[in-house]
Fold this protein.
Amino acid sequence: MTRTEILQELHNKRNCAMVTLGEYADLIGFDREETDSFALVFGGGMRKGNVCGAVTGAYMAIGSYFKERDKAEEVAEQFEQKFKEKHGTILCKELLGKDFSIPEERAEAFEKGLTDDKCPDFIATAIDILEELLV
């Protein structure tokens, strides 16, 4: 998925978790409408600046793909390390420098275009890592 396609998805009211998980809907046996509903409240670090939506979407894909807890946790750990190598953290508030649990900071992140500027890179990284780990 290209950066332009990712931006288009984000502008179509989909969050980072929805875009990341949705990219693997067919592989994990769901359609995008279903994966969008699973990931609906995981954007913005679960709306609180916690774990990045691209990461939580990836975790959902990993769990749905492997189904067995030990294997899923092993792969999730590999995913997390690779994501941290590239971006330094998995926390939305650290990635964006804004805490989505604070309404003013959330609004500022959107006003300053931080989500358009940075989030496509986090989603692309998540998708690239999943390509390596799932296929």
Remarks:
- The first helix runs from residue 3 to 11.
